[in-house]
Design brief:
Blueprint lengths: L1 E7 L11 E7 L2 E2 L2 E2 L8 E9 L5 E10 L4 E11 L3 H8 L4 H10 L4 H7 L4
Antiparallel strand pairs: 1-5, 2-4, 2-6, 3-5, 6-7
Helix pairs in contact: 1-2, 2-3
């Protein structure tokens, strides 16, 4: 899943091009994000590729800026996870929630592929 966040450089140091937004803690999977040059006081939109769990609840993470020479900051984000309609569809077809989640996870969310994989899980 792709999320788009707005971040702001609240410090006095330029974040040079090639700096990364790196997840240091969290209860979901998130790829590092390579940043463009961001001046102090400047805001930027970043696209974050994530893999959220197929369960309801709050997903949270903490990131740092890594310039290659220095790591700093704590950027916290929270994402509210709802049970996916695809999970509900599979459960309504008679599959257990666990099998539905596993099949969707293995098929990267493709419902038709998940249905074909459930007997093998």
């Amino acid at each position: 899943m792709k999320l788009v966040w707005e971040i702001k450089n609240k410090g006095k140091m330029i974040w040079p091009e090639g700096s990364k937004l790196v997840m240091i803690r969290g209860n979901f999977i998130c790829e590092d994000v390579v940043l463009r040059k961001i001046e102090p006081g400047e805001k930027a939109l970043v696209e974050v590729q994530t893999r959220l769990p197929y369960s309801e609840g709050i997903c949270n993470g903490t990131w740092q800026i890594d310039t290659g020479n220095k790591k700093f900051g704590k950027i916290k984000a929270y994402v509210k996870c709802m049970i996916d309609e695809k999970v509900r569809t599979l459960v309504n077809m008679g599959f257990s929630t666990e099998k539905a989640k596993a099949a969707l996870n293995n098929s990267n969310g493709d419902l038709d592929l998940a249905i074909s994989q459930i007997p093998n899980i």
